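for ur thesis appendix - 3-hydroxyisobutyryl-CoA hydrolase. copy paste whatever u need, i formatted it the way the template wanted (i think)
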Amino acid sequence: MDALNSTKPDNHQILVEEKLPARILTLNRPKQLNALLFQMISRLLELFIAYEEDSNVKLVIVKGKGRAFCAGGDVAAVIRDINEGTWRRLGAKFFWMQYTLNYILATNRKPQVSILNGIVMGGGAGASIHGRFRVATENSVFATPETALGFFPDVGASYFLSRLLGFFGEYLGLTGTRLDGAEMLVCGLATHFVPSERLSLLEEALCKVDSSDPAIISAVINEYSKQPYMKEKSAYHRLKVIDRCFSRRTVEEIISALEREALNKKDNWISETIRSLKRASPTSLKISLRSIRQGRLQGVGQCLVREYRIACHLMQGKLSKDHFEGSRAILLDKDKNPKWEPSKLELVSDDMVDSYFAMMDDEGWEDLKLPARSNLPAYAIAKL
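the 3d part is after this line
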């Protein structure tokens, strides 16, 4: 084990294996679906920075123990801390560290292979989708469920969702729809699909790859990949409707467009989509749509800086208490009955949305400062 691994009491939360030129990092909180704690994020950041400088390391494999890759950041822990009135000391520090990790993963010189054999949500998407290779399986479940929690798709989601085909990213970000491994592959969230029974063979093969060349690594993963079956009910078969509706300028227009579609044809998928939009926080929906739209035209760093502002406003709770209310209703009390304030889309004005994107007027607060990056490979430079 490397020196970094010997000093910290929380080592069991991230297991580190050295296998020839590969490093295997396993998120190890299976009972909590590998939800990321601050010290886990900080440890991953430390490891990825060290590996980038270590010429013996050619690639990094990241996976999760149990039935999840990672279900997100440990929001409940953060909310409990914030409720004690220390949002800036704890909450802001958590997001600063997490978004810095997302940036380092997105621009890393060493290829990352994420094995997404299970649940991938929120912060789990941030810890994997920014990496070079994302391997889905028949057990993969991806979602960005933040609008139901009074939050918004963060961890750089405004960058990667906005780059999916058509307006599929807006659809995923606003509705929190779950995708399986086949859908992740076809929409571009995953780069490969490997049946779970072949993962140990894949891992073994990857540990023998003495190269950081993405073409070579991709060829190895291809040997274990297959073309998965897309289920008939998949939202991906409804891209035309999604593009027609989710390309609209406002959330209200998106819902009206869906309601018009529902009049024209009976489709449970449309009514379920409308229901999930109407269940979500109106404020979150408007912030999320604006954030993803801005993400289309920005590099990953700019996206993370913007998302950090929004996250800090939501944690501070001056503009809206929806994040606390959503977390209470879904994660803490679990009554699944959040009382949003404002309660209707038309009560959330453009000016109100603007304020989440502005710098915070709070003593000691500053914009996210991302580390300088150099000697990056072409695929990383393209994200800047």
